[in-house]
């Protein structure tokens, strides 16, 4: 809704730009699918991690295009970038960091041995035996 005598902060983009960005997203999607059929670990080295790196790089470029143009973040000021992008990424990194600390610093008491998986499966009675 337009309010008369009020300065507008909005902006308009040419429609052709949206078609160009849409074409770039479509091309990057085709590139992602094509790259998934190549074992880049054998081609350039680095093993399976190279495939993941290439896929994540293409996905990051696509997400950046969507964020900048379709969500109009290209034209926002620093405060919006700080609270809309940087702060959630910082919180996500903190969450993953604490999860890794919890996962990798768990201590198994000395002298205990984890039971074999087959022994655990055999010790559980079948469901039919549990029914009245």
Question: What is the structural class?
Answer: mainly alpha
Rg (C-alpha, Å): 26 Å
How many domain modules?
Answer: 2
Assess the beta-strand content as a share of residues. Answer: under 5%
Question: What assembly state would you assign to the polypeptide chains in this entry?
Answer: single chain
Distance between the termini: 66 Å
Query: How would you state the average pLDDT, rounded?
Result: 81
- Write the H/E string, N to C: HHHHHH
Silhouette: elongated
3D structure, described in words:
- This protein is mainly α and 132 residues long.
- The protein is elongated, with a radius of gyration of 26 Å.
- The chain folds into two domains: 13-75; 77-107.
- The chain has six helices and no strands.
Task: Give the helices and strands, then pairings.
Layout lengths: L14 H22 L3 H4 L4 H23 L7 H27 L12 H7 L3 H4 L2
Helix pairs in contact: 1-3
Keywords:
single chain; 132 residues; mainly alpha; 2 domains; 6 helices; 66% helix; elongated
Concise account of the structure shown:
Helix content is 66%, strand content 0%. It has helices at 15-36, 40-43, 48-70, 78-104, 117-123, 127-130. The model has no long low-confidence stretch (mean pLDDT 81).
């Amino acid at each position: 809704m337009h309010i008369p005598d009020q300065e507008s902060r909005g902006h308009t983009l040419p429609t052709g730009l949206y078609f160009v960005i849409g074409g770039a997203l479509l091309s990057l999607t085709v590139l992602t699918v094509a790259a998934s059929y190549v074992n880049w670990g054998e081609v350039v080295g680095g093993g399976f991690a190279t495939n993941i790196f290439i896929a994540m790089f293409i996905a990051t470029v696509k997400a950046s295009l969507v964020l900048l143009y379709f969500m109009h973040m290209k034209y926002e000021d620093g405060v919006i970038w700080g609270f809309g992008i940087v702060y959630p990424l910082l919180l996500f990194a903190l969450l993953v960091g604490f999860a890794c600390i919890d996962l990798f610093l768990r201590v198994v008491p000395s002298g205990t041995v984890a039971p074999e998986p087959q022994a655990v499966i055999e010790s559980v009675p079948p469901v039919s035996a549990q029914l009245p």
